[in-house]
Amino acid sequence: MIGVVVPVHNEEQYLEACLIALTVACTHPLLDGEPVVIVLVLDDCSDRSAAIARRHARRHLPAGHLTCLTIAARNVGKARHAGAVHLLARQARWLAFTDADTRVAPDWLVAQLALRADAVCGLVMVDDWSLHPPHVPALFYAHYRWQDEHRHIHGANLGVCSHAYRRTGGFPPQATHEDVALVLRLMAIDARIAWSCQPRVVTSGRPRGRLPGGFADHLAALAAAPDLPSPPHDGAGEATAPEGV
Question: 57: helix, coil or strand?
């Protein structure tokens, strides 16, 4: 079985589109009918996110293929790990991670699995730059490597096999850069990491995120500092893994 984890904190604006895209990816014919279970980790939600998830599950997914976990941590590292632990208990062989404001490509899971790696770090495309000054997309792409072996890390486009996840201990309980910390743990155990542009996702370009230190804050920093010589993050709101490792 394949598992997908989505942390959610008050994402009613984006969640339905996220789930529609995931449903398509989970039923891709090249998965040969292998079951895919989506786990939404509702972290201190006070909006309609839970209701949207339940409605989508009833209308579009077989029973048991979408599970909602509820926590009150406001911590994305804890949320991702809670979802992973749930899926590992159900014997998932592969764990894929994305975000609630992100839409995955129809072949997202197929592309991750085809790389035959212990972990896959994919890239992101921004869906709409209209809420930012005109210089922001140019500055973003000036520091972004849209190619294989890119070394960018995104929690919105990440996959890891269950064996490697268990060996690392999983995501640490960090409120920011939990994805970078996991990849560094994977490097420490010499996991085979594919830095690939094949698994594709489109993510929100919103200027204000749900938690500090993420992608939205990175875009806001670019907007505030148009002459920034080199970004403190990787162009995606996350610190990069070291080149050449």
Answer: helix
